[in-house]
Amino acid sequence: MAQVLEPVAESTGLPGTPDFDSYPIQHWPVAARAAEGGVDVEWDDGSRSRYHPMVLRENSPDPETIHPVTREQARMLTEFPADLAAIEASIDPAGALAVRWSDGTASRYHPGWLYTYRPGEATRDEDMPERVIWGGDLDLSAVRVDGSNILEDEDQLARWCEALHVHGFAILENLGTDRSVIEQVPALLGPLRDNNFGRIFDVVTKPDADSNAYTSMGLPLHVDLATREYMPGLQFLHCLQNESTGGESLLADSFFIVEKLRREAPELYEALSTTPMTSANKAVNTDYRWTVPMIHLDPATGEPLEVRWNPWLRAPLTADFETADKVYKGLRRLFQMGDSPDNTVTVRLKPGEMLGFDNRRVLHGRTAFDPSTGGRALRGCYVEREELWSRLRIVARHKRERLVSN
Amino acid sequence: MAQVLEPVAESTGLPGTPDFDSYPIQHWPVAARAAEGGVDVEWDDGSRSRYHPMVLRENSPDPETIHPVTREQARMLTEFPADLAAIEASIDPAGALAVRWSDGTASRYHPGWLYTYRPGEATRDEDMPERVIWGGDLDLSAVRVDGSNILEDEDQLARWCEALHVHGFAILENLGTDRSVIEQVPALLGPLRDNNFGRIFDVVTKPDADSNAYTSMGLPLHVDLATREYMPGLQFLHCLQNESTGGESLLADSFFIVEKLRREAPELYEALSTTPMTSANKAVNTDYRWTVPMIHLDPATGEPLEVRWNPWLRAPLTADFETADKVYKGLRRLFQMGDSPDNTVTVRLKPGEMLGFDNRRVLHGRTAFDPSTGGRALRGCYVEREELWSRLRIVARHKRERLVSN
To answer: To the nearest 10°, the Cα dihedral for B105, B111, B113, B117?
Structure first.
């Protein structure tokens, strides 16, 4: 199964890379020299990169440094001398960077790999399609995907994964109404995330409802389990029956809404992305609480990673008066925007359809329904987002491999 | 099952609170007045608090505002007027704050609740024992807990939860070696977290190991699944057999080690808590990656929330030369400290014992073992940290209820 590291790709004379990715060559290095212990490389577009010695040394694609089967680092950082330095660096006839190290190792680097990881670049994630942030005018055909053969057909799987990532939600059609669908289809991405409502939950009206979800009430936009340190990533709801009057699903892209707030009132956005707020579950037998700013910014990019849109599980805010004022103004504005069709889409799920959404990004709710007019039954589960992203990368890798082998 | 909100506790004349917590009275309010739309309260120690109107209004413990059964907010923030203000505020004869609001509502607030949530305070988490950050001189008796009757005995459960939280790890003893222990005992906290290695994993040597864990190699200190957006919170390892020479478990408190780094080299600590680093799983059929600073600081407190101590799954660092230099110096120093008995403890697990640790705080590893000298078999699983914390709060609540009823 596992591919063995090939130190040299025969046809090109270029060395292998320290992982399973492919690195198409965009630019060739034209000159190199040892500098400050590291290596200066000049590229064919005239740009220059200064590599830190440890970045190159610990990723040297030789079998002593990188395990040839697992491609994991086989040597601990502390095994390399602290004063490790490049003694000599050059571009060899095949176009690879060749380095002689002070620890006696000689390494060669693939130019595609070297260019990808040049200093000052964000880490690439080449198989991740660009996200589309959407408002109320979203054309739902962009998120409707045929799932009639999804257990077998990797192209259907790929389209579903892409919609889920790009728009943060997707409606998979033609799944039938077998109760096992909710076990089998989300599991194509990865393991289901168990939780105190059960690994699989049935969204039906219950006489002794322990959550508003299990009533026929309308539910305003929200995220699930905001009271947890780690909110569930993806939620799936498979529709078995939907005959009641009402019971439409509401969806909104919180990243779209908070971006509107950032533009119209940056000081309120700032308050909501820096003020710790506690979400608290108030139940008799569980007591989940978590304190974090509502808008969680990615430290790497400054963009939202998740939004804890939590209308009814907020603990009393203990911020000072002035901060509380900004937080409440910001919350009110967000909740108002969440009530507007400018920012939301409405979907009436049909039996055999499964709605999936990124619970850290896409808000969900529903309109009230009248159980006397007919049954409404959904089955739900959670899966982590990282499973979707891993699947997207693997599907893209398989696609490349098919292209190569055809 | 659910308790119904009691608007007034008969014996004291004080109003109920909007949740299930208890609020012992530490100070009494002595005066109150409407101010800036909110309420100024003077306490019996002379201190003053100015409450924002929305904090008080949306937590008014009346059944229109707080659902009497679920104690969740029954009214959306947007239902209150944006210019809501206190018209009149006073301390009533029972010692409660009484407020008349511009929307016509009259509310009364319990003094214990009011004092707990005064502005400028950190949100309290009264049942969470203080953490102990430890080094190599930790006395292991502090983390050894009898588990002989843990499925039945809530006091054993409480002691185990406390050790797990306070020290970030615990050794539960006298569990026997039934293979189902790893299903039943961690499930006392909450549902097991499934993952690509399985809901339950057997740590035994395998001929076709897809992870170093399944070899007899020594494993340096690390955290599990650093490549995920959300790393597993708690890990449990139940020992069935441990007869080999070697195979001791190594543990270290990463919060202790990074604090040492912060003191001795603040600029390296700063680099590791701000520079995005990518952890990348390199496998044939999964491709997990996550980019985040190694030391994740809690935005609410500035203290570490988790440390992604990842010796062998780091993607090439693309920081600029100067930053890369600090990151590598910091990493080297951390890994050196992780190799020192000043910072680690060694445990030889016996059959029937279960090691549990906070995978976001406590690093684990093992010494190499010689499979020819005897068998070594552990069974493992993950549970989220939030389940531990919820359980700790509920166990404390039960203890209070027992005190009251005795």
So the answer is: 90
What value does the mean pLDDT take over residues B294-313?
Answer: 92
Closest CA to A328 of B97, B76, B99: B76
For B139-168, letters b (16+ CB in 10 Å) and e give: eeeebbbebeebeeeeebbbbbbbbbbbbb
pLDDT digits over B271-281, tens only?
Answer: 999 999 999 98
Residue B97 in 3-state DSSP?
A: strand
CA-nearest residue to A360 within chain B is B229
Are the C-beta atoms of A83 and A53 separated by less than 8 Å?
no
Chain B partners within 8 Å of A397 (Cβ): 287
Directed axis angle between helix B266-274 and helix B254-264, to 10°? 130
Residue A173 CA to residue A140 CA, distance in Å, equals 13
Single-letter amino acid code for the residue at A333: R
Q: What is the C-alpha separation between A286 and A302, in angstroms, rounded?
A: 34
ipTM of the complex: 0.89
Q: Which of B76, B191, B324 sits opposite A335 (nearest CB)?
A: B76
- Given its phi and psi angles, is residue A79 left (phi above 0), alpha (psi -120 to 50 degrees) or beta? alpha
Q: How far apart are CA B194 and CA B200, in angstroms?
A: 8
Question: B247 to chain A nearest CA, in Å?
Answer: 20
Question: What backbone phi and psi angles, to 5 degrees, belong to B90?
Answer: -160, 165
Degrees, nearest 5: CA angle B380-B385-B391: 105
Q: Which residue of B has its CA nearest to A339?
A: B78
Percent residues over pLDDT 90 in chain B: 74
Region A8-124: CATH code: 3.30.2020.30
Dihedrals phi, psi of A297, to nearest 5 degrees: -90, 140
**Do A52 and B397 lie within an 8 Å CB cutoff?**
no
More confident residue, A45 or A398: A45
DSSP B314: B
Residue A211: band (very low, low, confident or very high) from pLDDT cuts 50, 70, 90: low
Among candidate residues B180, B178, B183, B172, the one with its CA nearest the CA of residue B147 = B172
User: Are A321 and B119 a contacting pair at CB < 8 A?
Assistant: yes
Residue A302: φ, ψ to 5°: 75, 0
Burial of B248 (0-12, 13-18, 19+ CB in 10 A): middle
Beta-ladder partners of A354: A172, A238
Which chain B residues are within 8 Å of A285, Cβ to Cβ?
Answer: 394
Domain map (residue ranges) of chain B: 8-124, 140-394
A104 phi-psi bin (left φ>0, alpha ψ -120 to 50, beta other): left
Q: Are B172 and B147 in contact (CB under 8 A)?
A: yes
- Tally the C-alpha atoms within 13 A of residue B129's C-alpha that lie toward its C-beta: 19
**B327 has pLDDT over 70:** yes
Q: Where are the beta strands (DSSP E) in A223-334?
A: 234-242, 245-246, 249-253, 277-280, 289-292, 295-297, 304-307
Cα nearest neighbour of A312 on chain B: B73
What is the pLDDT, as a whole number, of residue A209?
63
Q: What is the CATH number of domain A140-394?
A: 3.60.130.10
